[in-house]
Design a protein that fits this description.
Layout: E1 10-15, E2 18-23, H1 34-47, E3 55-60, H2 71-76, H3 84-106, E4 111-116, E5 119-121, H4 123-128, E6 133-137, E7 141-143, H5 157-164, H6 166-175, E8 178-180, H7 181-187, E9 192-194, H8 197-212, H9 216-231, H10 234-250, H11 252-262, H12 268-271
Parallel strand pairs: 2-3, 3-4, 4-6, 5-7, 6-9
Antiparallel strand pairs: 1-2, 7-8
Helix pairs in contact: 1-3, 5-6, 9-10
């Protein structure tokens, strides 16, 4: 793509149908600053309807994924000439804006992979829960540290709970428990365990090869069906899925996929 947004705090690298989004502030452990979240928003909006981008990889420079929110920003929000009620409303609005990003990333039509090494703390751990495939190194450190700072893991809480289940979410959030890559996989927070950074790349390549066999349009519709099934009554969700099935079957992708199967060959998207 030639119209990717200009960015300062993240780096965008495209290789064919794969776009890699790097958090690029290792000096702050790739904290989620306002600038970072704004640039991620812009990137997701730009590629949303672009089916030539089939996979979005999210990772961090400097050997660390993401250490969550910028604590200095939290401190600056505590001092102001405004009333406490006005300050609280301003803080709540900013916090909720991060939630909008989480919703957007969670339902991004592309297949989203997180490559996690070093640390995924607070909001960084939350981001790991939003990916379709999460690959983590064995020594990566995880923690939901918010309650140890006197604040709740507000916007990420629903996504963490959805990922690991209510019981484990309560334990992780209310104890600030520290754990590493293998436990993250056992919890269901991550999917694939890599021994080290080199193995992380190998495991990612294997997943990309699997994604290459799947039609990008069908993958986008499938993600939509998955999320609608959590929002609608069963019958309505199945009606929605049926319409998506019909649309895909009648599409160029659907015709190509069925034809390739009958002719005992790979579909065109798998050869790209």
């Amino acid at each position: 793509m030639s119209n990717l947004p200009d960015t300062n705090s993240i780096i965008l690298e495209q290789d064919g149908s794969v776009l890699t989004l790097w958090f690029n502030q290792p000096e702050s452990r790739n904290a989620l600053t306002e600038e970072v979240t704004s640039e991620v928003h812009a990137t997701l909006d730009t590629i949303r309807d672009e089916r030539s981008i089939r996979t979005l990889i999210i990772r961090g420079k400097g050997g660390i994924f993401c250490a969550g929110g910028n604590i200095k920003d939290f401190k600056s929000g505590q001092t102001s000439d405004y009333t406490e009620e006005q300050i609280a409303a301003y803080i709540a609005k900013g916090n909720r804006t991060f939630g909008d990003l989480l919703i957007k990333l969670n339902e991004q039509p592309q297949t989203v992979i997180t490559l996690i090494e070093g640390a995924a703390i607070g909001g960084g751990l939350g981001l790991a829960c939003l990916s379709d495939v999460s690959i983590v190194t064995r020594d990566t450190r995880f923690r939901l540290s918010e309650t140890s700072l006197g604040i709740p893991p507000a916007q990420i809480a629903p996504f963490v709970t959805e990922r690991v289940g209510l019981s484990q979410a309560r334990r992780l959030m209310l104890t600030g428990a520290r754990f590493k890559g293998e436990e993250a996989v056992n919890l269901g927070l991550a999917h694939i365990l890599a021994d080290d950074s080199e193995d992380l790349e190998t495991k990612c390549k294997q997943v990309l090869e699997q994604i290459a066999s799947c039609a990008p349009g069908a993958n986008a519709v499938t993600k939509n069906i998955i999320f609608e099934s959590t929002r609608q009554p069963r019958a309505a969700a199945l009606d929605f899925a049926a319409r998506g099935f019909a649309s895909c079957l009648m599409s160029d992708e659907g015709r190509e996929g069925i034809t390739a199967f009958v002719e005992k060959r790979s579909p065109s998207w798998a050869e790209q």
